[in-house]
Write a structure and sequence with these properties.
Layout: H1 15-36, H2 42-68, H3 74-94, H4 100-147
């Protein structure tokens, strides 16, 4: 049985994005359960549609945050998002036609890709955010010291 949960290692330090990561994995877990039971039809289609929509909304939120902090690698990160969406849409286009074992393998691939994306790419913007926050804090400290050199 696949594990679709996140632990603290995958947290990026943004409550919204961390919560969204968990919701995405929850949707994946539900789709996985349906595939294991070889259930197809409207319920599975609805779940995969919600997964697709939620991923796209999450990526928009994440990209907005990266734009606001002027992340240097934003284009590379956006390309990763586009690649994931392509894989997900391919999965959605085939899941009713294919056998359950292949679908399960594809979903496990998507989950692994998503987890690795958080661990590698999302951690980069989290570290960049920490450096920005530290620089702002130091700048405020220096300004305060200049204005009040006691």
């Amino acid at each position: 049985m696949e594990n679709f949960s996140l632990n603290g290692v995958y947290e990026v330090g943004n409550e919204l994005l961390d919560a969204q990561h968990k919701v995405i994995l929850n949707y994946m877990a539900k789709v996985y359960t349906y595939l294991l039971a070889d259930k197809k039809g409207d319920d599975l289609f609805g779940l995969t549609s919600r997964l697709d929509t939620y991923c796209k909304l999450h990526f928009l939120d994440e990209e907005k945050i990266m734009e606001e902090m002027e992340l240097p690698e934003i284009q590379e990160h956006k390309a990763q998002h586009a690649l994931f969406v392509t894989h997900l849409e391919n999965f959605m286009g085939r899941y009713e036609e294919s056998d359950s074992v292949k679908n399960i393998d594809e979903l496990v691939f998507l989950k692994g890709w998503f987890m690795e994306h958080i661990e590698v790419f999302d951690k980069r913007y989290a570290e960049f955010r920490k450096r920005l926050d530290k620089m702002v804090h130091e700048s405020i400290q220096q300004a305060a010291h200049k204005n009040n050199p006691t």
